[in-house]
Amino acid sequence: MSVMIVGEENTMKIALTHYFSGGDHMQKTLRKYFPIFVLPTLIAFAISFLIPFVMGVYLSFAKFKTVTDAKWVGLDNYIKIFTINNDFINALLFTVKFTVVAVITVNVIAFILAKLLTRGIKGTNLFRTVFFMPNLIGGIVLGYIWQLLINGILMNMGVTLTFDAKYGFWGLIFLMNWQMIGYMMVIYIAGLQNIPDELIEAASMDGASSWQMLRKVTLPLIAPSITICTFLTLSNSFKLFDQNLSLTGGDPMRQTAMLALDIYDTFYGRTGYQGVGQAKAVIFFVLVGLIAFIQLRVSRSREVED
Amino acid sequence: MLGNISVDDSMAEFALGQCAMVQNGNWAYGQISGVDGNTVLPADVKFMPIYTGMAGEETQGLCIGTENYFAINKNAPAEDQKASLDFLTWLYTSAEGKAAVVGQLGFIAPFDTFSATEKPTDPLAQDMLAWASKPGITSVAWNFTIFPSQTFKDNVGAALLSYAQGQMKWDAVSKLVVDQWAAEKANVAG
What we know:
The structure holds 2 protein chains of 2 kinds. Chain A has helices at 2-22, 24-59, 76-83, 87-116, 124-132, 139-154, 165-193, 197-205, 210-221, 223-238, 242-247, 259-269, 274-300; strands at 62-64, 70-72. Chain A is mainly alpha-helical. Chain A has 2 domains: 2-59, no CATH class; 79-300, MetI-like (MetI-like fold). Chain A has a two-stranded antiparallel ribbon. The relative contact order of chain A is 0.12. By secondary structure, chain B is mainly alpha-helical. Chain B has 3 domains: 1-45, no CATH class; 78-143, no CATH class; 147-190, no CATH class. A two-stranded parallel ribbon of chain B has the order 1-2. In chain B, α3 (78-93) crosses α4 and α6 packs antiparallel against α7 (170-189). Chain B is globular, with a radius of gyration of 20 Å. The A-B interface holds A 69, 80, 84-85, 151, 155, 158-160, 162-164, 251-254, 269-272 and B 1, 3-4, 75, 149-151, 154-155, 158-159, 161-162, 165, 167, 183, 187-188, 190.
């Protein structure tokens, strides 16, 4: 059976090689029509990404109420971010704190669940589905539902989610975990299932303890999964908006507003400060890009090549 | 919980007879009458001034005014600007326009094109008009327009909530009001 498949693949390869290199005429035609084929995508990309992005950066240097009527003010908006109040710095600190805790908790719990659900326990598929399901619900809806639920519990202590910033913080962490764990778990399960049984067997024959096995065999081999999962949790936590808006709305006194919510509040909540909100958004973009870049570099270097 | 109560909640409590007093304006009557199972009689919905224990407040009336204005975009095409002006003139001078303002919007229009009978008939609007014409009573000016910004109001509101929940001392609240006023005035000027 397997021999046949290999055979088919080879035939396929030969056909493709012929198609691309042998057909010189074909290649010329392809090159000729390339711009036409790529044009629709290029137009869509320009309209939905390039133009708004360039406009957004331009608007961060302008004072405006409507985007078509903007006045160039240079770096004024960027200076105002830090001089009008401490909201941006506070939001940045809160976001960093949130991200650190969320990345650790989500990944550790997701990995433990993945470990448990690759042991062949009865009902594994049911558990996997159930854990994954929260990821399918929209953030705004989740935020409001959990606000009701968490407030219902906090009520017994005579407080609410927005009574003190610490309730909002842990509420957000809980919500993030509840929503992201299932997704990360699925990725970890895929990684764990790809570890060759021989390696585990060899390690146990050599007398490795389960801790050694985890440290020296499992973790290095699922490094690609760890890269993907930390990247996803990191960027999702850092950019969190919907859940923040609906769970606490930044209350009390903007102490639980994360960066995205602070940008939104500046842009829409303050007349005449649209440009400052835009400048915050540009800084936010640079931060997210920087973090993602560093994080990918660091974790790629730890991955095991096969 | 205090922090979770919305204006809708407090208006509903009032309409259902669960509380006797609530702070709001004459526009709230639509909200009160619209609550399901409303038990408050129209004749029982009244205004009273906010007495705070200051000297001379016996002659104080209701706080009456507005903080919203009609504005016309100077960058719009000239014919659009003229059309907007024509519409506003029609709205506040023609019989049809005035009927809509009074009847459907429930506004008490501050323009002399409205006669004494052209006022909303809901109990709160009627009571407000009665207060405004009481002899020896002076209405309180609506000074929100000189507040620095909406952000200032939001910050003061949040500080008052913290105070009510026992998390902020009164000194800190009054310091915040003074500091925020200065800061927001500067922000608006800059």
